[in-house]
Amino acid sequence: QVQFVESGGGLVQPGGSLRLSCAASGFSSASYAIGWFRQAPGKEREAVLCIAVSEQITYYSDSVKDRFTVSRDNGRNTVYLQMNSVRSEDTAVYYCAKGRHVWCSTGFHYWGQGTQVTVSS
Fold it and tell me: pLDDT tens, 57-91?
């Protein structure tokens, strides 16, 4: 019964900020790597970043490396994606996913249903 619920998406203006939440249940997110992915209309899902149990962050997209970050609140069993200086190309459905182990390199399973982020003026 591993589950994720993403929240915090919505409409934001270019250059603005948004904080997405990924609330886990059925397991302790503190014990696994947690990844963030996104999918824009008509495009394949792409990996954005991942936080390991050690809290080391892996960036999969150069376009977000200086704008996005990820953090954990283990007491709330929640992982956050902080999005700053957003651009129109950040518009997508954002998903979080459970890693198979403590490192981001081990792959992912158990996906949330996603939350829509729309960047528009």
Answer: 999 999 999 999 999 999 999 999 999 999 999 99
At residue 29, what are phi and psi to the nearest 5 degrees? -65, -20
Tokens (6 digits) for 35: 């990844």
Q: Give the closest residue to 105 by CA, choosing from 52, 27, 37, 39.
A: 52
| Contact of 90 with 81, CB cutoff 8 Å | no
Q: Note whether 20 and 84 are within 8 A (CB).
A: no
| Burial label, 8 (beta-carbon count in 10 A; 0-12, 13-18, 19+) | middle
Distance of alpha carbon 106 from alpha carbon 92, whole angstroms: 25
